Amino acid sequence: MGVRVLLDGAGRCxxxxxxxxxxxxxxxxxxxxxxxxTGHCWKELRRAGTSEVIRWFQYRTHPPRxxxxxxxxxxxxxxxxxxxRPANSAAGAVPQSQPRRLALPGAPYGIAVRGRDLAYITxxxxxxxxxxxxxxxxxxxxxxxxxxxxCVTFDPSGSRAYVSVHYLxxxxxxxxxxxxxxxxxxxxxxxxxxxxxxxxxxLFVTTNEDRLLALSAMTGRVLGSIRLPATSHHLALHPAxxxxxxxxxxxxxxxxxxxxxxxVLRTFNLGGWPQGLVVSPDGMTLYVANEHHxxxxxxxxxxxxxxxxxxxxxxxxxxxxxxxxxxYTVWIYSVLCGLCCGGSxxxxxxxxxxxxxxx
Length: 359
Fold this sequence. Notes:
The structure is a single chain. The protein is built from five helices and 24 strands. With 359 residues, the protein is mainly β. The strands form six sheets. It has a four-stranded antiparallel sheet, with no helix packed on it. A four-stranded antiparallel sheet has the order 5-6-7-8, with no helix packed on it. It is globular, with a radius of gyration of 22 Å.
């Protein structure tokens, strides 16, 4: 509704500030919403006019299928019996074990992987969640969710997926067997990170009202909440499943929270802007991507920062390789790979073009 009213006004003399009250959205949020959905600022929309803006929006939500997949991922026409492969055809094939790049418009953002067969990818500007078949490496379809889906996670059984729908202030629940939307749960504020408890009974989510919420994963009922010192964009669960870590970017801290009683146990004041979080498999070390200065390493036994890897660009996202030997943290122009050895890190750079792979 908010986007429709604002887009309807793109060709009129009134500005976004005069139209925002009709949508019951804060003016600053209305401008951000239009920018995120259309990919253009308000002045550009006014200049282009309503018909051109609608055309842009339709292109983002329903892009031509021809650009969705590279040539080597398109299905081929088969005869009744597959023809014999020429001896030199292997050179042009793309083995499944090799990395590949898929064209996916609509501002892909969050991703969740279910086993070895399926991945869900949120597309903020397309208001949908895309399906990626991991066995074939092909995009197989999408599920409409609503305005700006952001983060996504599967439940332990893989039969459900939970999506934070940022500008609708709700959590969407997808039946990941049929790939259909089955429930939506309202939450106070714009939700972003979502994280399931180990047993799959509780869904943790933070919103821009500076709150951590615990929801029933079956009904969406709010089981409890705590006030945060600032908005959180990243969550992580301790391997023992009894503690939750919450990065509060603007407050420069990471909170350690009792996952069952929803009570803050410790606060790690790191400074800068803490973002992505990874807990080591042994539960002794917490790695924190810091947008201000790089990477912080916290010894959870002492609660102290035991190492810091500084860089002028800082880092945002953080992930550990399946063999637990490498950390990957996204910087602005590169990917930093740090070799984890007893809490120490050795930096190395990997180019983002054309692929990023796990050694």
